[in-house]
Amino acid sequence: MLSKLMIAAAMGTALMGTANAGWERLADAAVPAVQPASKEAPSVMFFCSNGSFSAVMSTQDGDFDVVLSDTSRRVRNVSGSLIINGDEAYSGFFGYKPAVKSVSPKESKPSKKLFNAVVRGDSVVLDLGSKGKFELALPGADQVFSEFAKECRAMKNA
Question: How far is CA 48 from the centre of its chain?
Answer without folding.
Answer: 14
